[in-house]
Amino acid sequence: EDLLKLDHADLAQRMGGRLCVIGNLPYSITTDALLSLVASPGALRYAVVMIQKEAAERVVAPPGSKDYSPLSVMLQTFARPRMLYSVPPTAFYPKPKVTSAIVELDFPAPSDLPQ
């Protein structure tokens, strides 16, 4: 099913618990895909995704840094993001023009979410 159309809360309820998401997100929809993960607070436990490194740096950017953005604020409000490591273009065939990164998003329990 299309990640952008998926109702995470409904799926979590049908699966009987919070979800774990693992994937290589299409770089052209990275922001929308990440925002879809936080659209249903409490539905996810964690996510591990590969995204373009430039986007990963925005996701984990601390307040006041040059990479801090609305995406940083949204994701850091509902999850604890951490960049695990970079993936060089040479890891792929055909080789892309960008470096990728693996990002972990740890979603707090529903009771720990901001009200």
Automatic annotation (TrEMBL):
One of its GO terms (molecular function) is RNA binding. S-adenosyl-L-methionine binds at residues 1-2, 24. Its EC number is 2.1.1.-. Residues 1-109 form the Ribosomal RNA adenine methylase transferase N-terminal domain. The keyword Transport does not apply. Pfam families: RrnaAD (PF00398). It is an enzyme of class 2 (transferase). Belongs to the class I-like SAM-binding methyltransferase superfamily. rRNA adenine N(6)-methyltransferase family. PANTHER family: DIMETHYLADENOSINE TRANSFERASE (PTHR11727), RRNA ADENINE N(6)-METHYLTRANSFERASE (PTHR11727:SF18). This is rRNA adenine N(6)-methyltransferase. The gene is rsmA.
